[in-house]
Amino acid sequence: MDKNSIVFLVLAALAGAALLFRRWYLRFPRSYIVSEQISGDKSLTVTEHNPRFETATIELSVKNLTAFSFMPETAVEFIDTKGEFTRFSLEALEITDVSNTISEDLKHFKCTFEKRDLMRGIRNREIKLNSFRFVALSGQKALIKSHVIAFSTKYMLFRPDSGKYN
What we know:
This protein has 166 residues and is of the alpha+beta class. 20% of the residues lie in helices and 39% in strands. The strands form 3 sheets. The chain has a 5-stranded antiparallel β-sheet with strand order 1-2-3-7-6.
């Protein structure tokens, strides 16, 4: 074998190893906490699982120091440029595949749904998307709200900057 063949063989082996490493690395699930809000004895955590994949899910986790006497409901408040909001329940956004679980001690509630269902509900309702927040409800009363959230250009959730300092 001459030098050119050996160099080509080494470069091909390196490229193959890099491709295998990338496939191995992307197989692991990713979870990002988008918002963590604490209000009184309640806390709300918004977590996005595998945001760059088609199967991305959003998990809302509500914790309470005392036991819930009811099953909390979840909704989304869409905020316009004037700061006014319109609230839609997940059912109103046609998100039907929702997993609601509550712990045995009734202090921890989780709601999980797919991000593509949320995006489809926004498109079907023709909502002009600026920013939004998730809300845990007791009837029509808001128990706790997340921080204001928006979608990035790659449709990942993030907390936008208010632009106000001091």
